[in-house]
Amino acid sequence: MPTQEPARPQPTASLDARYSSALRPRPGAVDATATEWAEAQRHLEAAEIFWVSTVRRDGRLHVTPVIAAWHEGVLYFSTGPGEQKARNLAHHAHCALTTGGNSLTEGLDLVVEGRAERVADPAVTEEVIAAYEAKYSSHITSPEGTFHGIGDAFRAGDAVLFAVAPDTAYGFGRDNGVYTHTRWVF
Question: CA 54 to CA 61: how far, in whole Å?
Fold first, then answer.
């Protein structure tokens, strides 16, 4: 299980100038640098909605929104055992989770690529339930919450919990017309 491995080293970060303002000088662009991984982690921890991309058996993509929690260097999300993304991941574990904003001039869009592994360890499941509850609060803990009962669904196997430890991640930053494209390799 990804969370039980020794602490992973910090990823190496590089700025891809081809897709950053460094090649198209404008005010502030000369100072364009790779986004620090710590900043990316803060965004992963705070983001409420992610889009998971999986591959169907026939090679077509399947993209759908999910809630997810970043916990101890791993991104966790869930789905019903019979849903398309679960069926896709059963035959092809590689996936990407994306999150970000829709502003042209500010924000940080993130793409996390890795292999989705089913979480089977009850202790890890409990840690992730706690992370979900801390992040989404009343959406999960209140009987009126949209995702109330998700923890019980994880425990009972009515929802499949997946862990994605990043292999590669990308950050697309926008700061008042200064654009950065950072790649992190783990």
Answer: 6
Cβ atoms of 3 and 71 closer than 8 Å: yes
Closest CA to 183 of 7, 10, 11: 11
Percent of the chain with pLDDT over 70: 90
The DSSP secondary structure of 61-123, one letter per residue, reads EEEEEE-EEEETTEEEEEE-TTSHHHHHHHH--EEEEEE----SSEEEEEEEEEEEEE---HH
Instruction: Report the alpha-carbon distance of residue 64 to residue 3 in Å, rounded.
Output: 25
Task: Kindly report the backbone phi and psi dihedral angles of residue 15, in degrees, each rounded to the nearest multiple of 5, phi listed first.
Answer: -90, 125
Report the chain's C-alpha Rg in angstroms: 18
Place of tokens 């959406």: 139
What is the C-alpha separation between 122 and 119, in angstroms, rounded? 8
The pLDDT tens digits for 10-46 are: 899 999 877 777 556 665 566 678 999 999 999 999 9
Q: What is the pLDDT of residues 75-126, one digit of tens each?
A: 999 999 999 999 999 999 999 999 999 998 899 999 999 999 999 999 999 9
CA-closest candidate to residue 32, choices 168, 182, 170: 182
Token pair in block for residue 16: 């891809």
Decide if 126 contacts 133 (C-beta within 8 A). no
